[in-house]
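Mods, move this if it's the wrong board.
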Amino acid sequence: MRRFDYDVVIVGLGPAGSSLAYMLRGSGLRVAGIDWVGEDRVWGKPCGDAISAGHFDRNGLPHPSGDALMQVVDGALVYSPSEEGVIRLVGERAGYIIDRNKYGLMLLREASKAGVDIYLRTRASHPVIEAGRLVGVRATSEKFGEVEFRARVVVDATGSGGAIRRKLPEEWPIVENPPETDFVVAYRRIVELDYDIDEPNFIRLYFNVDIAPGGYWWFFPKGRRIANIGLGVQLGRGFPNPAAVYKEVLMKRADVGREVRVINEAGARIPTRRPSKTMVWDNFIAIGDSAYTVDPIHGGGMGYAMTAARYAAETIVEAFTNGDFTARGLWGLNLRYMRTTGAKQAALDILRMFLQTLSNDEIEWAIRKGLAGMEEIESVFGEGELKMTPSFLDKVSLVVRLLGKPMLLAKLITVSEYMRRAKSLYMGYPEDPRGLDEWAGRVESLYDEYKRRVGIPF
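Not the wrong board. Structure tokens:
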């Protein structure tokens, strides 16, 4: 068996792993990135392909251009179950629809030019643990056969399956097994249509529990005649397979069924929850879907993965500067992520659970009566808070009186309270590993209490 020695080995080269490889270029560290796919399938996980422009600026990554940029997005249209209620969200050059494969390859090529070794068609199978310490990973390479990659820091960026993380010793806190209901299974097609899409600069999201229970379905234009269309369905509650729903329901629609050709189709299991209680342990880091760094409401993970990669890069450089690769030496990633993006995720996870209990009638009510207006949506997604201001409560109270839904108002107030409490807990993330167990216990108690208060059945 061949052995390759590095400072850092990144397993998985999707948005998290390739962003980290790009960010570590020129760091002076010996870095390897490995993935089981070939060039044609880099960043191949099914996704809506939409991302806010701000993620690139915040994380120091190049904006998509050329063939990697499919469509500039100026806003979103959010539809009620009847599709008669529509919220129109408009931003100034809000984001992009990208060609994930081309953008991912661009990052990897730039990293490779700067000295990062990229090994595609190389499948990591097991962590290598010696004397209770993680020292590398074992892999099978199409080019080199059986290979052992040795490193001071191993990064798992392999997606929600956590190919390396889940094979670590069970007693390590990094090993975590959330309930199935914290995930959705998604299916999407990229298709060419036989008509010109109206307003291709707007993405469309449709909320209808008869079509996508516990999730939503989407129609994201990638130009005038190409669209990314798919749906996500909550796992663990016996809901229908999304691929079957797509073919049996969506294909009967005039805007979906008029396919000239299917360019690509795929399915995946996607986390929609708060982050893992820790993203690090001795000699180990998890980022991206492997550490559940996603937006719990819409499941978008690209931007959060980039943020996690930036914090991981800063932490790795810090660890090598200090010569400390223990959980304590890598704890900076947790502090950087949990007290910022993680706190927002934790609050949105509270809201996500509530939204997944709503009926079509309640969703229709919220959207058609303007309850979920631009101000409230910006508040929730910008800060991870549902702010119960007097003006907001007045608006809700009026609609409640008109439609007779007092229980929903009471639940909204409770949701707001627990969103604030969850965010506060994550803002107070422990300074070092010694406080992890006590903090994690408080988090679990808060979410259990919330579920009882609101009546969350899962």
